[in-house]
Amino acid sequence: MDTRFPQIADQLLLIERELRVQGWWSEQSPSAEALASVEPFAVDTLDFEQWLQWIFLPRMKAILENDLPLPNASGILAMAEMVYAQRPGQGIELQRLLSQFDQLISRAS
């Protein structure tokens, strides 16, 4: 098991918590078609927060639960910065959490 798994699991929980705190967590899943997007971050079918909830978090949890290799790099913060540049004052804490996630991923195990 990768030694970063416990820290990454904690970070994923913090990201989920922030989505809930901000009211960006949805109880209703997007359509199967929206979730099947092949575009990076599903930008053509999902809001960034939806992508985090319905694609990113489940995929990362599956990696941890199945002891699969972690990605070599993560650029989620860069995407978040682009999204929230259009919405000043929003997403500050989420960006901080995503930055920490990116740093954990880029650190050698």
From TrEMBL:
> Which Pfam families does its entry note?
DUF446
The superkingdom listed in its UniProt entry is Bacteria
- Ranges where the YqcC-like domain occurs: 7-104
Quick one: a GO biological-process term for this protein? Answer: single-species biofilm formation
Q: Where are the transmembrane segments?
A: none
- Name of the molecule in the record: Pseudouridine synthase
Which species is this UniProt entry from? Pseudomonas fluorescens
Provide the organism lineage as a comma list.
Bacteria, Pseudomonadati, Pseudomonadota, Gammaproteobacteria, Pseudomonadales
